[in-house]
Amino acid sequence: MTTHTKTEKKADLEQLISDYGSLAPGKEEKTSKDELKYRDIVRAMQWARHLRRQEDARTMTMAELIDKALFDVVNHDVLVDQIEEAVKKDAEIEDKLSTKRSDDSKRIRKEPRDEKPAKDAA
User: Fold this and answer.
1) Taking a C-beta distance cutoff of 8 angstroms, is the pair 41, 20 a contact?
2) 5, 25, 63, 70 - which has most CB atoms within 10 Å?
3) Secondary structure (DSSP) of 69-86
């Protein structure tokens, strides 16, 4: 990405955020704009965590991922259902990984080395 493209994207994101507050398609009128903003920020962070696992995003910094995720959520490029599905899949992956880690800890380990006695303060 060139600097010019990054600057344009950043300007677009800043404009979207400043104009943000209109209700997204399918949202209820009862929810305040601040609540929508908060929920969308949370969704953007969830989406950024999901994007981090993708191969093409491995070279991006976390700040770039957050910018991309926030832009996707605010611009409605990604839907709530897609984010929730991605979060569920990521949770399943984490569960599998944590199960493997706990299995590794159950393996018989070598006897711990005798600890050296602490030196007495003179």
Assistant:
1) no
2) 70
3) HHHHHHTTSS-HHHHHHH
Task: Spell out the per-residue pLDDT of the chain, length 122, in tens.
Answer: 455 556 666 667 677 666 665 545 555 555 677 788 888 889 999 999 999 988 888 899 999 999 899 989 988 899 999 999 999 998 998 888 888 766 655 555 556 566 666 666 55
Tokens (6 digits) for 75:
């611009």
Question: Domain limits of the chain?
Answer: 31-102
Q: Which residues of 79-96 are buried (b: 16+ CB within 10 A; e: fewer)?
A: eeeebeebeeeeeeeeee
Whole-prediction pTM value? 0.59
The three-state secondary structure class of 88 is helix
